[in-house]
């Protein structure tokens, strides 16, 4: 099938894909390697101690938290029609992160992602959000940062949501490989096993709106709060 004048060419589509892969690469220096996002609390309790239990935890995290926070926030950022919409979204997505470590971590990683991405893949929405962060009107949450960068790249929203959720799965699994510890092969099995859950998060998030943002399982949030006072820690959250 030939491209219509408004369709991106194959090189353009591949260029967008490469940009998205770069921005969601686990090697991107955002500091994600230092966060467990709560699974270390479950490790301390002895509830996460191997491949099976971590896979169960990660599936719960994707279904009961990530879907209703970051996946939804990415979609809402794509729906923004003016700069003020991003300011309002940033305030909400930051405020709904009740555990302090999760809130601070999301902002720290988001600002780093925004700074890196602005140098290489910036555009209208990235520049607007970056100005709002610099002016103190926005915090710079990771999900919103990824969304504005992907939007400027011309990446479809479903691809952006998929990439962000999958990148979180990969990052957390790599951290579990070091922290539990797990073998590298076990880590790859977990990442493969979670792919249907990532697609489930993408599908569910299509029907969510701003009223659903932050509808998180209390048990996960409590565990993330407990981490602040854990006696010994490998991770920042």
List keywords for this structure.
Urease accessory protein UreF; 237 residues
Describe what is shown at a glance.
This protein is an all-alpha fold and 237 residues long.
Describe this structure in words.
Mean pLDDT is 94; it is low at 1-5. It is globular and about 50 Å long. It has helices at 10-23, 39-45, 51-64, 70-79, 83-95, 100-121, 124-134, 142-153, 157-179, 184-193, 195-205, 218-226. The termini are far apart. It has a single domain, classed as Urease accessory protein UreF (Orthogonal Bundle). The longest helix is centred in the last third of the chain and has 23 residues, at 157-179. The protein has 237 residues and is mainly α. The chain is built from twelve helices and no strands.
CATH fold name, please? Urease accessory protein UreF
The low-confidence parts are 1-5
How many helical stretches? 12
Total beta strands? 0
- The class by helix and strand makeup works out as mainly alpha
Helix content: 55-70%
Q: CATH superfamily membership, which one?
A: Urease accessory protein UreF
Based on the coordinates given, report the CATH architecture: Orthogonal Bundle
Main sheet record: none
**Shape summary:** globular
Mean of the pLDDT scores? 94
Cα end-to-end separation:
49 Å
How many discrete structural domains? 1
H and E string: HHHHHHHHHHHH
Give the CATH class: Mainly Alpha
Helix and strand topology:
Layout: H1 10-23, H2 39-45, H3 51-64, H4 70-79, H5 83-95, H6 100-121, H7 124-134, H8 142-153, H9 157-179, H10 184-193, H11 195-205, H12 218-226
Helix pairs in contact: 1-8, 4-5, 4-8, 4-9, 6-7, 6-8, 7-8, 8-9, 9-10, 9-11
């Amino acid at each position: 099938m030939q491209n219509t004048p408004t369709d991106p060419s194959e090189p353009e589509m591949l260029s967008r894909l490469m940009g998205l892969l770069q921005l969601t690469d686990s090697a991107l220096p955002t500091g994600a390697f230092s966060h467990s996002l709560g699974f270390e609390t479950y490790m301390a309790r002895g509830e996460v101690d191997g491949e099976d239990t971590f896979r169960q935890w990660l599936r719960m995290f994707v279904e009961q938290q990530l879907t209703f926070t970051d996946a939804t926030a990415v979609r809402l950022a794509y729906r923004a029609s003016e700069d003020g919409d991003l300011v309002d979204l940033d305030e909400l997505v930051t405020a709904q992160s009740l555990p302090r470590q999760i809130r601070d971590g999301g902002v720290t990683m988001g600002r780093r992602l925004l700074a890196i991405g602005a140098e290489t893949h910036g555009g209208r929405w990235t520049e607007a959000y970056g100005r709002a962060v610099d002016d103190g009107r926005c915090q710079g949450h990771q999900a919103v940062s990824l969304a504005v960068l992907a939007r400027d790249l011309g990446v479809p929203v479903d691809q952006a949501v998929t990439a962000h959720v999958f990148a979180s799965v990969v990052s957390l699994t790599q951290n579990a490989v070091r922290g539990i510890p797990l073998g590298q092969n076990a880590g790859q099995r977990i990442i493969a096993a979670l792919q249907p859950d990532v697609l489930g998060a993408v599908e569910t998030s299509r029907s969510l709106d701003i009223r659903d943002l932050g509808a998180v399982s209390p048990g996960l949030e409590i565990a993330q709060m407990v981490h602040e006072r854990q006696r010994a820690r490998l991770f920042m959250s």
